[in-house]
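pasting input
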Amino acid sequence: MNTKSILGLAVLGAVAALPAWAQEAAAPVNNAFIFNTLLFLIGGFLVFWMAAGFAMLEAGLVRSKNVTMQLTKNIALFAVASLMYWLVGYNLMYPGDAWTIAGLIGGFSPAVIQGDIPADAAYATGSDFFFQLMFCGTTASIVSGTLAERIKLWPFMVFTVILTGLMYPIEASWQWGGGWLSTAGFNDFAGSTLVHAAGGAAALAGALILGPRIGKFGKDGRVHPMPGSNLTLATLGTFVLWLGWFGFNGASQLALGTEADANAVAIIFANTNMAAAAGALAAMVLTQVLYKKVDLTMLLNGALAGLVAITAGPLDPSLFGALWIGAIGGIIAVVVVPMLDKAKIDDVVGAIPVHLVAGFWGTMAVPFYTQGASFGAQALGFAAVAGFMFIVSAIVWTVLKATMGLRPSEEDEIMGLDKAELGLEAYPEFRA
Amino acid sequence: MNTKSILGLAVLGAVAALPAWAQEAAAPVNNAFIFNTLLFLIGGFLVFWMAAGFAMLEAGLVRSKNVTMQLTKNIALFAVASLMYWLVGYNLMYPGDAWTIAGLIGGFSPAVIQGDIPADAAYATGSDFFFQLMFCGTTASIVSGTLAERIKLWPFMVFTVILTGLMYPIEASWQWGGGWLSTAGFNDFAGSTLVHAAGGAAALAGALILGPRIGKFGKDGRVHPMPGSNLTLATLGTFVLWLGWFGFNGASQLALGTEADANAVAIIFANTNMAAAAGALAAMVLTQVLYKKVDLTMLLNGALAGLVAITAGPLDPSLFGALWIGAIGGIIAVVVVPMLDKAKIDDVVGAIPVHLVAGFWGTMAVPFYTQGASFGAQALGFAAVAGFMFIVSAIVWTVLKATMGLRPSEEDEIMGLDKAELGLEAYPEFRA
Amino acid sequence: MNTKSILGLAVLGAVAALPAWAQEAAAPVNNAFIFNTLLFLIGGFLVFWMAAGFAMLEAGLVRSKNVTMQLTKNIALFAVASLMYWLVGYNLMYPGDAWTIAGLIGGFSPAVIQGDIPADAAYATGSDFFFQLMFCGTTASIVSGTLAERIKLWPFMVFTVILTGLMYPIEASWQWGGGWLSTAGFNDFAGSTLVHAAGGAAALAGALILGPRIGKFGKDGRVHPMPGSNLTLATLGTFVLWLGWFGFNGASQLALGTEADANAVAIIFANTNMAAAAGALAAMVLTQVLYKKVDLTMLLNGALAGLVAITAGPLDPSLFGALWIGAIGGIIAVVVVPMLDKAKIDDVVGAIPVHLVAGFWGTMAVPFYTQGASFGAQALGFAAVAGFMFIVSAIVWTVLKATMGLRPSEEDEIMGLDKAELGLEAYPEFRA
């Protein structure tokens, strides 16, 4: 018996003297595996909750005659994302070594989360799948708000199938799947570009091809406001998104099994909250200064833009860094709206300023705090992802327009999609 | 000094050389105990949240004149469940060795969660109590929706006392308390039968004895739709339930202290989400095919039916298994509604298709994926629980009808329970 | 080579023989640090959610013409709290050894959460900061409800800056920062006094200086009810608060790294739920007895008062203890309302009975179950904190009244603050 055996036995002997549960505890349970899996599951259910947040935000910001439609789209798009991400998205985004075109297009096969746990696994595959599919759902949620009140249900659903099954997984694979962008030095911690700007670019393409709502931009050149029907819902939706974002950014640390990881997740939570608060306050003060009164919807979008802005790099900035990054996000949410109006782009809920423009800002802000990040690589990543999403979306929207048609008849749009297309009003007893 | 002592000392010596916190960490802390407890607490607060989900779903699906009553019942029934489950339910459901009638009726004593932690405890008793009482609350929530708009407050509350204090704990003890069903080979992971079908059977008995709302079924044989007053609330409620269900099914694994348990919880989360998504999409497509338009309320109930269906066995199926089990649930939610209408059973929110019928389906689907499960045992378990709940409920409802009376006067029902019974309108400023 | 070295090597040798992840796991990872941090983060996001709960509760209990304003205040006050707690609050509340005036006034410097993790750290600083700032936000949320419908936006915001940056951190430092109250034997586990009564006292001072809403108290001496515009929202808000309170009380255990801590958190969750349920039921039965009908808003406030009452000592009581402490809280919520009416104090949402009076009750109930607590010390702590908050608030409100003015013009108040001050209606399509 050599020394090593004796020493090994020493531990085993000590373990054998312990009570049953302690033996098990002393046996090498991989606590880090459990912590990491738990982080994904908690983060995942928080990001799931964001789907409800988008639904409430959008239902609150459309007119009451289109609320049922907006709710239908939001819950259906999440269901589609869940299906498509399993069917092809997960392996397309995380191909491992099985790229179809190396670094550019991943593999095509359904996700499998069952089976033995590999000895070197850091987390449960199911928890990763669960967490990542929520991001796919978020990307789709962003699109529905911009295009509200004037797009038919089924072409929107077909677009969602393509977005969640192909477009999002492909561009996200470039960075998070280990594709070409990740080797180009791009940094996007939780998706200012990969999720938010991606969704925003798809929405922008749709808004351009779909055109504005009837009556939004008058022939006299004036913009006609179409106020949201239920601001309590919109506020609730914003609170839900703010809450969900702790999971969105926090669990994007991808690990909780060491003190350093736990510490990182904690910093991310605090920075995420600070950016949201700063975005809200910046928008609040700016609307008071510009328009002599606070605009609640801008305040809400300011909070969301602050959140989008910090998402590319929520770990490295100090709390003060999160503050100013978020505050500029909030300013963007306010100042971009009149620009879109000028360009006659009708973005019903303000998703383009919040997700696309603040997503750009957040992406470009990363090098201020993250070592090794460069403005060039950030600009490249943003341009590649937003460009890809915009162009492919434009093609898909154009094909859908030519085949299924995108818009309801003028009569139906004026009547409202709820009555015209669904035959079901959201508030049948409350007359306008 | 024998070898064993030396070996034991070896570990202790090594521990003594570590810094203070590491000594504590190296001392046999039962991390599994903490993980398991945490799972119950997270699962518990998620299932608590389902009480809010039912409240919103039901408040959204009733007419505005009965909303205050529906909200009152929902929050009060959860409070009653909390009280009764402590007073008698917990020990009735988990009697250990203290059965009143072995395997059939447990013990009668209040729950105690304080006291020393036994050396072999796998989790904190308080966390198990907290988690399990939420299931008791869920069962009661199911009943309130079916009977909405036509039952007086106090008889409903008396029924809830009996349901939560006696009926649910007794039938649940048969399986989860180690009673006769568990030895008969029945499988019901998180309660397709024990919670959902049980609540649905109690609701069905109530609907039959209570009769339909005035005007629901015309003398001309036609069904008069009575659309819900607030579909944003109904959608919010569904999202809340979907979220809560991750805790409902996930924490029913009852353990998180090993890699295998963490992996199982992760699979359950992913399967639960897949079943909900598939149920929603199946209902969406089916209503389009059958009625030429998508029906949001069916889509919502489809998601819920998918969730109910996967609840009996959320761990063993593949994602594809969860998909088709959930999709059939969604189909059930759509096709059972006209059957109930034909039978002149007035189920205001569709709880009977969603919880009773999809609960049956989910229970019977277990043997497709779970080794050792049999269709016979599944049918036996379902019949026993649903039969017990239906019969006892029918007796209780009949006695309540004969004593307190169940229905308000015709005049009061037409006026709405909010004004008539509570004197408080939910939306006093928004006139129908 | 001495014995100790050999024994130390024994462990290291055994570790070296393990696979990579197990080596890491066997290396002294401080799991307690991770558990504690995770508790703060989960507790923190649950308490964050309470900000949404207050927003919904208050938006539901005001008249529709003031809903946008109430929403604006609620989201803005939380953003201000996030900013101020970083800028000065955190170090003012937890000065360590850096008191400005020992035991009375802490230090003045922004919070820093980055940097190396000290070897003896029990949790991530960022997670503590995140959790504690949520309590600061809660205190501010309490004030907004009482003063609703008749205070201008900006003076309210200035008060919030002072409350969250100075007043709350100072009084909370007296106990939780290790100040003079903590050495005086005061007990307040999660803040019946330090958060709830503190907020309630600030609200009371504001209500007295601001005066009642126009028309609330008629010249004929009668009280004119002004019913809330949306009871589904109010109910949703209550459910949200109830949910958030599990984090509020549970994570105030401040540790989850041992079996004893996990057990304590579990007991706190169960007791917190019991107190809420008992408060709801007590208020329900009492309103039935007093007014011959159940009052939903009282039931909601009863649940909240039960929660406030248990907050000072949620760990030590039995479930039965939590029941009667919570039930008395619920009774307080009902019986204090007519007293306030008699005193012509206009408390729009009932925050004074719920937070101040039930907070007093909960504080005084601690000695019934907590060893070492005394009625004298409890009364001292309550008087000191409530007195400090009332007096300082009264001064600040008075100064604001004299400088900015607190109330809108009579015309604006009658028109509603949404149109008059914000130019944005919450429900523009639903006419009263």
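fyi Chain B touches chain A through 75 residues (CB under 8 Å).
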